Structure formats: C-alpha cells, structure tokens
Amino acid sequence: NAVVESTNRLLKKELIYRNHHTGLEQPRSDLNDYVWWSDDQRLHSTPGYRSPNEFTEQGLVL
Predict the structure, then answer these.
(1) Is residue 44 part of a domain?
(2) Which of 3, 8, 15, 50 could bridge across to 54 with cysteines, CB 3.0–4.6 Å?
(3) Does any domain span residue 6?
(4) Which three-class secondary structure string do you get for 33-59?
(5) 24: containing domain
(6) For position 29, what pLDDT does the model report?
(7) Its pTM surpasses 0.90
(8) What are the per-10-residue average pLDDT scores of the chain (62 residues)?
(9) Using CA atoms, how far apart are residues 39 and 43, in angstroms rounded to an integer?
(10) Is 9 inside a domain boundary?
(11) Is 62 a domain residue?
C-alpha cells in the first residue's frame, strides 16, 4: 500500500499540480510521456543509476 500511495503522490506532484488541464486528453498524454520518461530516461539509484529498461536489458536483477 505504501508503494501505491508514494506513486500517487509523485504523479500528483509532477503531473497534476504543476499543470492546468481543461480536458482529459492532455493528462492522458502527460501520463504516457511521464511513464516513458521514468522507464527509459530517468536514472534510479537502486539499479546503479540506470533506467529501469536499461537495467532489465542488461539482464540484471535486484
């Protein structure tokens, strides 16, 4: 439950509160862009400062 709450808090902070949306299409697009960025571009400290996809492609596990 803590992981879900942390993820929701992060998404609200980074996507919802920073932008003013008038419809549903833009938030959906923003969420897709954020997930792509988080999986492919954002470096995470736990997997040795690699993106999650890079970590998986290298056949590494935690």
Answers:
(1) yes
(2) 50
(3) yes
(4) HHHHHHHHCCCECCCCCECHHHHHHCC
(5) 2-57
(6) 92
(7) no
(8) 88 87 89 91 91 92 84
(9) 9
(10) yes
(11) no
